[in-house]
Amino acid sequence: MKTLTRFPSRxxxxxxxxxxxxxxxxxSLQAQAVDNQRQAYDIPAGPLDRVLxxxxxxxxxxxxxxxxxxxxRQTTGLSGRYTVTEGFATLLSGSGLQAxxxxxxxxxxxxTATSGSNSNAVLPTVTITESADPxxxxxxxxxxxxxxxxxxxxxxxxxxxxxxxxxTSQGIEDVQARAIGDVIANDASVRNTNGNGGFGDSxxxxxxxxxxxxxxxxxxxxxxxxxxxxxxxxxxxxxxxGPGTLMYxxxxxxxxxxxxxxxxxxxxxxxxxxxxxxxxxNSQFGLKGDIGRRFGENQEWGIRVNALYADGNTGLxxxxxxxxxxxxxxxxxxxxxxxxxDAYTQHEDTRNFRPQFSLGTGLTSVPDAPSGxxxxxxxxxxxxxxxxxxxxxxxxxxxxxxxxGAVGYHVAQSAQNFPRATITSVQGATSVTNGxxxxxxxxxxxxxxxxTRFNTGGIKHTLIAGANMLDQQTDYFYxxxxxxxxSNLYTPVSLGAINFARGTETPQSQSRLTxxxxxxxxxxxxxxxxxxxxxxxxQVYNHSLTTASQTSNTxxxxxxxxxxxxxxxxxxxxxxxxxxxxxxxxxxxQYANAGQAFAPSKSKQYETGAKVDWGRVTTxxxxxxxxQKNSSTEVINGLTYATQNGRARIRGLExxxxxxxxxxxxxNASATFFDTVQSHTAGGATDGKEVxxxxxxxxxxxxxxxxxxxxxxxxxxxxxxxxxMWYNNTNALKxxxxxxxxxxxxxxxxxxxxxxxxxxxxENLFDKNYWVMQNGYVGTSSGRxxxxxxxVDF
Length: 794
Prior knowledge:
Layout: H1 11-23, E1 39-43, E2 46-47, H2 48-59, E3 63-64, E4 74-75, E5 78-82, H3 84-92, E6 97-101, E7 107-111, E8 146-148, E9 154-156, E10 163-167, H4 169-173, H5 181-184, E11 190-192, E12 202-205, E13 208-211, E14 215-217, E15 234-241, H6 245-248, E16 258-264, E17 272-280, E18 282-295, E19 301-314, E20 320-333, E21 337-351, E22 356-359, E23 381-396, E24 401-417, E25 420-423, E26 429-433, E27 435-456, E28 459-480, E29 485-488, E30 506-524, E31 529-544, E32 551-568, E33 571-582, E34 601-613, E35 617-636, E36 639-662, E37 665-679, E38 697-706, E39 713-722, E40 725-726, E41 734-735, E42 738-751, E43 754-763, E44 771-774, E45 777-780, E46 785-793
Parallel strand pairs: 3-7, 14-16, 22-25
Antiparallel strand pairs: 1-5, 2-4, 6-7, 8-9, 10-15, 11-12, 12-13, 15-16, 17-18, 17-46, 18-19, 19-20, 20-21, 21-23, 22-45, 23-24, 24-27, 25-26, 26-29, 27-28, 28-30, 30-31, 31-32, 32-33, 33-34, 34-35, 35-36, 36-37, 37-38, 38-39, 39-42, 40-41, 42-43, 43-46, 44-45
Helix pairs in contact: 2-3
Pfam families: Plug, TonB_dep_Rec_b-barrel
Subcellular location: Cell outer membrane
Membrane topology: Multi-pass membrane protein
């Protein structure tokens, strides 16, 4: 890790690039006009004015008209691939109206020469086939109709016996997401457990911690950075709540609350060319590029290239963050063969990242959270580098049998000052120890299988046999100074000096997770009943490579059963039972028992719920129960040990709704209520107590509104409420809950013939100070943050 060096800072170049993108009309860009490009649309039937506005917004053109001429008119919507001219013509067919292009490139509605005086006529029916693609956007465009379920294949939300949410590229871009958590935290059952600008991302799903290492990339584990994924290369984020072992295999970090799969960007049928200039307060400027093209007689070959560079000071006092990323996605889509290859490299260099603290055993209450802009570890640094490549191949052997396979390789490195800090008094006194934690993780991942479809007596079957493997070796160097410095949350002092030489990472542990799965999904009674059942044989091999080596090797068979009943097409009633074997992992370097191998544990989930598609809005309700071995920390003689002690049971009620509630008003709302309990703990010490770090309730509300007074202008807001929770399993200290409000706007216009999208978001609008809770630690929230961008599509 000594070879990691900081890139030369180029703030002047970055600032000039941003200013140019915001101020210049991009007149020198030569490209095909948006009007002549065919794009895919899936816009449901509805009032003509709303459908036209939705089409114009997605097409990236300006549209103006007198609301009186569209009053009470209806249209059946639009589904398929159209140019702007073809789309308008189809939507307005038979209405007596036409879209006329103006000199400025925008469009206006006008009466055709043969139109009559009946302005309240209903448009004639246009026969349009609804998109069968379950990954197509749902009403409002922020989430998809469905997504991938790993070995179970791709299905719509209404046909899935699990709780899933699939965020689209629009849902990612409109909030100017910089990390996965900026998107998936739209669900009340999901929370970030690190503030933006921390040493790495981590999440909580259904009350269980999930690290970035448990995020899959195109269905493969081990391909995502240990710190944070460069989201600029991500097209879609698929979230499955509950254990996903059967569908995805085992995550290396052992998370059971849910599974997250990232889908990389692919070239579309129409050319993609965009440049985006970004600004993040305090003064971080950046530039992103996105280019996609398809080639071949039938456009079977595709390439998508993304690049990112950002540098400057963040909202944390004294913090500077530099990021760079480059990715390429190749694909071939033939009549019988589909192939893809993705490769990326990313580098991050941060001076002064956001800290975390443990709470001292003598505390009687949790101190007030300091400002999210305060630098509580002055002098810390972190660098990370990732290089990964992954490829997937699917071959249709015949009309009913498909073979597939995927393989990936990833090397992740990080080097950081790793302060260890404890809050020792309610007045904010802290004890801070400085040191080094350098890490290297090498991962090889593979997935193969056969999928066949057949009928038996009128019953449809989709039978899948598959196997996957993940091999990870972890090397690290970890050493802390023998002395600590006294600091304070409200008047922090610099970190103590490190008085020893930085060593080299040495092998610490090896994990190999292998499994074989067999599943069958049957459809009966005109697809009103779907049953998915399967078994996965799992083997977990953990081996400590230290001098006190330990090995664990466990095998188990994990079942899954899911049922969907659709009394009517718009109503799905579902239930599932899943069990999983979870890798026990190793105690982290920061614990007194670092490197200790924990035995794998079994978890199980029961869930039932209902989903209703109202046409433009989908509502869901679910109740669940998950049980797993309880992970916690224990302080013995002043030293903190990682432990597994007893069982944790988490029950929950989830309520959610999303879609387009009114014309031009998109929403995403959810609420989750938790009930937790511990059992079978050592000596019964914490039996009957609540599970630490799990809130009692969470709420989310997001709104996105197309304003009526200015075409192309949309406003958005998100309100997030997280309830109070116990700091740990002893239930001695309670961390207060918090409410955060975000707000934003975007404006789509045309400049010099190019479509330009301006976005502005304010995160933590009221600059709320609060603790972000992770099992065993509290961290500071991000303060008020301004995020600006200008995107030019040419």
